[in-house]
């Protein structure tokens, strides 16, 4: 069972697609959003949730005070689950888009995103992920103070970051690794916080 961890919809159950998705565990979501709230990256934010699956990450952001959330997934079962969850939880500021993430990020946006959550299938080709990250880099797609979160398997290599986006932190939770990145990442900060031994604080 997948539930919203906290906020206005805290404790509510989410519908999960019957196949093709790997929902982020409640433990990882709780730790992830604790970190994001410490960074003041959620309340009032414009949030993009790519490869949304059930929409758990984006819905968690909405529950915790995000101003607007867009859930993007290309699988019909995922889109149906996202729409059912948004309707059941009565989240009018959450939009569901049925489209490939790689195509969606090529579109111009009305305003830069403040927070981008990327939780693709673990078998997603690294070149595809690199292209998505490259499309998100730059002030027209991502706010200069914005945060990008990438969730990957502990067996996956570090994402290939574009020039205008770099990692600021790496957190490991069992088989899951979460990377935090921002446009203003400094080389020294990246080195220190991305060490393989990093663990949740």
From TrEMBL:
Residues 192-201 have a biased composition (Polar residues). It comes from Cellulomonas fimi. Residues 1-21, 181-201 are annotated as: Disordered. It holds the Pfam family Cons_hypoth95. Keywords: Methyltransferase, Transferase. GO terms for molecular function: methyltransferase activity; nucleic acid binding. This is Methyltransferase. CDD domains: AdoMet_MTases. GO terms for biological process: rRNA methylation. SUPFAM superfamilies: S-adenosyl-L-methionine-dependent methyltransferases. PROSITE patterns: N6_MTASE (PS00092). It comes from the Bacteria.
